[in-house]
Amino acid sequence: MMADPVVHALLPAAGRGQRFGDALLKQYVPVAGKPVLTHALEALVNCSGISAITVMLSEDDELFGEMIAPEFPGVQTAVGGASRAESVFKGLLAIKDSHPETNWVLVHDAARPCLPGDCVRRLLRQGLEHPDGAILAIPVRDTLKQDDDTGHIERTVSRERLWAAQTPQLFPLDRLMSALKDCLSFGSNPTDEAAAMEQQGARPLLVMGSSANVKITYPDDVMLVETWLAARNNGDHR
Description:
single chain, alpha/beta, 7 helices, 31% helix
């Protein structure tokens, strides 16, 4: 008999956000009156299917304790690594040590502040029934162009059957740990957890996400996030 699922949420927030290009790390940028990371945590703290939360921080992070921790006294922290994969792997080790009963992990980007609660619930409901786990994603809508390395169009890529990956991503903890360990051992640098699982032959389930679940990557994204959060606060849940 399989054990009942115990889900621990993990947020890698040790990155430097080089593409964002701001002196303040993007997870701490104020959006709609709160740091980006506060919004991301609120979506998970309020989810009954999540037993605990850990945030991975850089070794020299001095802002979490000041800006975030007072609002989330139950959220744990640990020191991340030089890459996302390394941070998540270290996070899994920390979870295994402090919460040995955990058998599933839900990894969410610290820079996705608009995660709808119904998306989290849908991911848990569908993903926990799938042995390879699941991720939130949305079908690609735009026409895709591949360049020729000189800034010119080489070809148009069919968007049929293509999905844009989002987070959270939900996997059995031990299997994700094994997948990331292999990637790190061979010098691979997967851009998300699903890619690491795929390298071990897994076929995670695609669960419909939301166009509101924007990841802040560039400064212009902040304005878009402000718009989504304002609409949500005014009762528009599209």
